[in-house]
């Protein structure tokens, strides 16, 4: 993989991380349970740290890092807002939306890790994907244990 393709791949993952940060932040604002709000805020902070780490890699490889999310992420956040109004803003609905976002993030990381990557980049992406998987599993467990 040449540096330009690598920078594009990393910028896609930065956008994914920013989508996660914004999505978790919005969901934290809509959550009712204080413990859930705190959990979602921590997940948003994790996503922000992941994006910053990827931005550093983009600069290392001579690129200009993305600093915002994707158009699809913005649409998803818009849908979360509309769905909240219609669903009564339940914690179960908020968690279901978070899980949907984490499903998308996992798919993007899996796709990226199928590429031929420099060892330093692969190490970062594997570690970050482990974190995305842990977020997904935690959100799913919370959703499954929260009344609809």
TrEMBL record:
Gene3D superfamilies in alphabetical order: 1.20.1260.10
CDD domains: Ferritin_like
DUF2383 domain segment(s): 6-115
Pfam family for this entry, one: DUF2383
Superkingdom, natural source: Bacteria
Name of this chain's protein: PA2169 family four-helix-bundle protein
């Amino acid at each position: 993989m040449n540096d330009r393709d690598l920078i594009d791949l990393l910028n896609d993952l930065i956008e994914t991380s920013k989508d996660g940060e914004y999505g978790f932040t919005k969901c934290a604002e809509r959550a009712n349970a204080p413990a859930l709000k705190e959990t979602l805020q921590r997940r948003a902070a994790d996503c922000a740290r992941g994006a910053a780490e990827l931005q550093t890699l983009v600069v290392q490889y001579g690129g200009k890092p993305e600093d915002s999310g994707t158009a699809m992420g913005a649409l998803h956040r818009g849908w979360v807002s509309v769905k909240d109004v219609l669903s009564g803003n339940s914690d179960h609905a908020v968690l279901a939306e978070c899980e949907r976002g984490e499903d998308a993030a996992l798919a993007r990381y899996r796709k990226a890790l199928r590429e031929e990557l420099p060892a330093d980049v692969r190490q970062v992406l594997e570690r970050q994907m482990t974190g995305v998987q842990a977020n997904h599993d935690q959100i799913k467990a919370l959703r499954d244990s929260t009344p609809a």
